[in-house]
Amino acid sequence: MKWDEFFVTGDPLIYGADVSIGLTVIGILFYLTYFKKWQWLWREWLTTVDHKKLGIMYIASAVLMLFRGGVDALLMRVQLATPDSKFLDAQHYNEIFTTHGTIMIIFMAMPFLIGLINVVIPLQIGARDVAFPYLNAVSFWTFFIGAMLFNISFVIGGSPSAGWTSYMPLAGNELSPGPGQNYYLLGLQIAGIGTLLTGINFLVTILKMRAPGMTLFKMPMFTWSALITMIIIVFAFPILTVALALMTFDRLFGAHFFTLQGAGMDMLWANLFWLWGHPEVYIVVLPAFGMFSEIISTFSRKVLFGYKAMVWAMVIIAGYSFLVWVHHFFTMGQGELVNSVFSITTMIIGIPTGIKIFNWLFTMYKGKISFTTPMLWSLGFIVNFVIGGVTGVMLAMAAADYQYHNTYFLVAHFHYVLIAGTVFSCFAGLIFWYPKMFGYKLNEAIGKWVFWVFNIGFNVCFIPQFILGLDGMPRRVYTYSAASGWGGLNMLSTVGGFLMGIAFLILAYNFYYSFRYSERENTGDSWGLGRTLEWATTSAVPPHYNFAVTPTVTAMDPLIQMKRDKQDVKPKIEDIKKIHMPDNSGVPFFMASFFFVAGFGLVFEWYWMGIVGLIGVFITLIIRSFDKNEGYYVSEEEIKETERLTV
Amino acid sequence: MFKRFKPFFALGLLLSVFFLGGCSNYIVLDPKGPVAAQQKDLILYSIGFMALICVVVYVLFTVIVIKYRDRKNDDNFEPDHHGSKKLETIWTVIPILIIIALAIPTVTSIYDLEKAPVSASGEKKEPLVITATAVDWKWIFSYPEQGIETVNYINIPKDRPVQFKLTSADSMSSFWVPALGGQKYAMPGMETKLYLQADHTGTFSGRNSNFNGEGFTHQIFDVHSVSQSDFDKWAKDTKSKAPKLSKKQYDQLMLQGEAKKMTFSSTHLKWVDHAKDRDYAVKTRERLGVVPQNPHGSKAKDANNPEQDSHGVSHSH
C-alpha cells in the first residue's frame, strides 16, 4: 500500500482537518506536560472505575462526537442548500452522510445516555457504585476506542460510504472496495462490546444493588427506563455483533453470507440489521423518556402521573420493539400479509407512547411549574416529539409508506424522534444533573438562549424536509437539479441547520462561562426541588463512595418523604462504618488500546497486526483473571472528615 | 407566559399552511394514476387524524402550562395528585380506536396495490409487462411481448395497467415513479412485482431511491405515457428500425457507470435473467478485467482523468 492510499489526499477540507487534528493533539500534549498533568490524568481518569467519572468521560466523548457529527451535518446542508452544488463530490458526500448517521447514533446518542445513566443511576438507587466497576471501565474504553477507530477513517484510509445501514451487496467488496467499510465493521464491533457489557452491568446493578426498601415499584422512572433499556441491549446487541461478524467474514475472509457471489443473501443483512436497529431506536429513546419523567415531575413539584402506566408502557414498548423491524423495508416485496402484520404492530407501539405523552401533560396538571432550562427542554420535547410520533404512525401505514420510503419525509420523521427525543433529553439531563457532576449549575440565561435558538433552528431545519419528501426528494442524493424546485426549501433547511450549529456554540460557551462564573453549590439538592436519592447526598458532588450511610427508602420519592419528615440527609456519626471500594485499574485502558491495534490491523487487512492486537487483548484478560486485588476500605476517620462530622 | 410559546403556534400554523394549502403542488399529493391516487387518499386521510391528535395535545399543553405555572396563587396545587383511572382509560381507548380506523384502509390498500389497478373507464385491461433491471447506475427495461429493450426511459400506454417485474444486476435498488405510485425494491437474484398505471399522457420522472453508491443521484429514468395507438406504433417502429442489442454491448452496460438513453429491437432476456442469476454482472466485470477500486486508492485517483471511466472503476492492464 502506498502512502497516498494510507492517508486520504486531494481534498482541501481533509487537509484542513489534518492540520486541526495535529494542532489539537500538540496542544493537549503541551498542556499535559507543561502543567504536569500526566499523573493526574492517569490516576484520576484513565484508570478510574468510579461510575461518576466514567459517566463524565462518556458525556465528554459524546459532546465531542456531537460536534463531529454536527460538522458532518452542516457540510451536507451546505452542499444541499443550492441546486447543482459543487461543494462536495458524490463520494465525499456519501462518506459524510454515512459517518454522520453512524456517529450520531452509535457514538453520540448512546454514550451520552449511557454517560448520564452512569452518573445518575447508582446514586438514584442509593448504591456505592455499579455491580462491576472494573467492567464499567472496560465498557467505556472499548466504546471510546471503537469511536476513535471509526473517526480516524476520514484522514487515514477513507471513510465508509455505504450508509449507516450498510446494506449488502453495496457494502461488500465488489461494490465498496477499500478499507472504509472495514472501519465501520470493526469500529462498531469494538464499541458494541462495551455497550453489551454496560447492558449486563446495569441490569445487575439495578436488580441487585438498590437501597433497602426500594422495591421495583418504588424505583424512580429514570431507573425504570434504564432497567428496561438494559434488557433491550442484552437482547439486541448480540444480533449486531453476529451480523457485523458475518459481514466482516464476507469482506476479509471471502465468506458469502450476504455477497452477490456464492449465493449470498443480501436481504438477510437488512433483516439482521433492523432486528437490532429497531430496538436500538428504543435504546436511545427510553432513557430519554425516563429523564423527562424525572425533570417534569421535579419542576412541576408533583409526583409523576400514572406511574404504573408509565412503567407498563415502557415494558410494552420494549417487547414490541422486537416485533416491528420489517417496517424499515415494507418495500422489499415480502407480501401483503407480512406488511399488514408489521403495519399494525408498528401502529400499536404508538399507543403506549401516546399514553406517556398524556401522563407527562397530567404530571404538570395541578402542579407548580418552574421554567428552568431542563424543564424548557422537556416541554420542547413534548411539543416536537408529537410531530415525530404522528409522522411515525403515518410511516407505519405500509401502503402509504411506499411513497414516503427513502425520502426526506422519513429523514424529517426520524430527526423529530431522535433530536426531540434523545438530543433534547441529553441536553435536559446534562443541565439537570450538571451540578451533581461538577458542583455548579450551567448558566440559566445562556441556557435559555441555547434552547430557543436550537429549537427554532431544529424546526426550521426539519419541517421543510417533510414537504421535500412529499415532493419526491429522495434521501442520500448529493445534489438535485434546479428544475426539481427543491432549492428554496433546502436553503431554508440549511438555515435551520446552522441555527442549531450556533446553539451548539452557545452551549460550548456556556460550559466555559459557567466554569468561570457560576455560583458553587453547597447542598446536594442543587435545584431545591429534588425528589430522588441522587439529591440526598451530603455535598453537591457526592464523594467517591456516594453515601456515607446507605439510605433506607420508605416511599416512591424518598427525598420528598425525607423533607416531609424533616429528616436530615446528614448521616449520624454512630452509623458511620468503613466502606469497601474497588481499586483503580489501568488494565481496561490497555485492553482497549490492544483492541485498537487489532481493529486497525484488520481494517487494512494487515493480519499480523490484527493477531498481535488480539494477543494483547488476551494477555490483558489473563492479567485480570490472576489479579487478586480485592479493593480497599475507606476508613471511618476519612468518611467523618469528608462528611465534616465531629464528635 | 403565552408569549414564550408563540413560536410553536407560528410553526403549527406554518405546518398546516404547507400541508393543506399546497397539496396539489407536491408530487406525491398530485397523482397521475390510480395507484398514486389511492396512496394520496390514504395519506390525506391519515393527516386528518394526525392533525386532530396534534391539536388535542397542543391545546392541553397550552392550557396546562399556562394555568399551572408557578405563581403566587396556588389554590390548585396538589403535589400528590398521581393518577386517574378515567382519564387513563380515555387516552388508551381513543388511540386504539384511531389505530383501528387507520389499520383498516391500510390493510385494504396493501392488498389492493398488489393487484392490477382498474382503469379509469372501469374496464379490466390485460397489464403490459415490463422487466426493469437496475444496474449501477442505470435502468434497463425489457418488453418481453414486444421484444424490445430500452435504457433509462420507457414508453407506456395510458389507461392500461403496467406490471413491472423488478430485479437488479448488482446493488439493492428501489424503483420509484412518485407521480404514478409508491416504490418497490429491485434486488439481485430476486423478482418483485409492482403495478402502476397512468391516467394521463405526459412525461413522469422515475428513479432509484435506494442509495447504492457513487452514481446513485443520477440513476434516473423517464416514463412517457402515450395513447395505446402511439404506444403500438412506437413498439412496432422500434422493433423494425432500432439496432439489435449485442451481447458485447449488454456486457458493457453491466459495468458501473451512468448511461445515455438507448433503444434496441431485441432484449437481454435470452442471455440472462438477473432474477435467477445473482452474479452475472460481477462475473462480467471480472471477465472484462474491471477490478473494483478503492475510491481513495491511487488507481481510482488516476481514473479521475477524463480519458478513463470516471466512476472509481478502471480497466486493469
From TrEMBL, chain A:
GO terms for cellular component: plasma membrane; respiratory chain complex. Residues 34-554 form the Cytochrome oxidase subunit I profile domain. Its cofactor is Cu cation; ferriheme a. Its EC number is 1.10.3.-. The chain crosses the membrane at residues 12-34, 55-76, 96-121, 133-156, 183-204, 224-247, 267-289, 309-330, 342-362, 374-400, 412-434, 446-468, 488-512, 581-600, 606-623. One of its GO terms (biological process) is respiratory electron transport chain. Keywords: Cell membrane, Copper, Electron transport, Heme, Hydrogen ion transport, Ion transport, Iron, Membrane, Metal-binding, Oxidoreductase, Respiratory chain, Transmembrane, Transmembrane helix, Transport. This is Quinol oxidase subunit 1. It comes from Fictibacillus enclensis.
Automatic annotation (TrEMBL), chain B:
It is a multi-pass membrane protein. Signal peptide: none annotated. Residues 299-317 have a biased composition (Basic and acidic residues). Keywords: Cell membrane, Copper, Electron transport, Membrane, Metal-binding, Oxidoreductase, Respiratory chain, Signal, Transmembrane, Transmembrane helix, Transport. It catalyses: 2 a quinol + O2 = 2 a quinone + 2 H2O. The keyword Cell membrane applies. PROSITE patterns: COX2_CUA (PS50857), COX2_TM (PS50999), PROKAR_LIPOPROTEIN (PS51257). The keyword Oxidoreductase applies. The chain crosses the membrane at residues 42-68, 89-111. Residues 125-237 form the Cytochrome oxidase subunit II copper A binding domain. Its main location: membrane. Residues 285-317 are annotated as: Disordered. GO terms for biological process: ATP synthesis coupled electron transport. One of its GO terms (molecular function) is cytochrome-c oxidase activity. InterPro entries: CcO_II, CcO_II-like_C, Cupredoxin, CuRO_UO_II, Cyt_c_oxidase_su2, Cyt_c_oxidase_su2_TM_dom, Cyt_c_oxidase_su2_TM_sf, Cyt_o_ubiquinol_oxidase_su2. GO terms for cellular component: plasma membrane. This is Quinol oxidase subunit 2. Its EC number is 1.10.3.-. SUPFAM superfamilies: Cupredoxins, Cytochrome c oxidase subunit II-like, transmembrane region.
